[in-house]
Amino acid sequence: MADQLWLPGLEAPPVPTDGLFFAVLPDANTAGHIAKLAQQICGETRSKSKPHAANRLHVTLQHLGNFAGGLPQGLVDVATKAAASIRMKPFSVEFDHVLSFAAKPRPGPMVLGGGEGVVGLHTLREALARALQNAGFGDCPVAPNTEHYTPHVTLAYGMPWIAARPVDAASWNVRELVLMHSLLGRTRHVALARWPLAA
């Protein structure tokens, strides 16, 4: 195999090691229910993909970026300031169908989706978008609309495409907003801070 061409001054960009995002998490009982559903679906499709463990299940509200060599403290500070300013009552969510985010026929993520049961997540995301902008996060790729946002819980990656179908609903009360640190490539998420929802 020929050596890769190297040109002075054109070093490869550093590999991201850390991600930062806002999320909501299911309670322990609901997470266990969703994890069992993920195992069942992986078994039905005879996929070699591993279902996500219960402690990794979440709904991403806003991804703030991936970074090499750790999280930028300034960004964490702005995110923390924004989240602390949000005032919203707790609300319930319900995910009632499974669907593929794959581009048929390629494998891709298998997720839980919801209809009217996820309206509260759109509202919380809008509030978060405004709070980030007010906190000075000018480069945040967030707009106070939810046109391209699809709330979901990822069950497994690398799954074969399937048509959307109903499942036993997974529902819980969203009582807090969480800032998560993703250790990329290490299948770990660490909660950096939590804010209870309150009017």
UniProtKB/TrEMBL annotation:
Pfam family, one: 2_5_RNA_ligase2
GO molecular function, one term: ligase activity
The keyword Ligase is assigned to this record: yes
InterPro entries per record: Cyclic_Pdiesterase (IPR009097), RNA_CPDase (IPR004175)
TM stretches of this protein: none
PANTHER family the UniProt entry points to: RNA 2',3'-CYCLIC PHOSPHODIESTERASE
Protein's recorded name: 2'-5' RNA ligase
Lineage: Bacteria, Pseudomonadati, Pseudomonadota, Betaproteobacteria, Burkholderiales
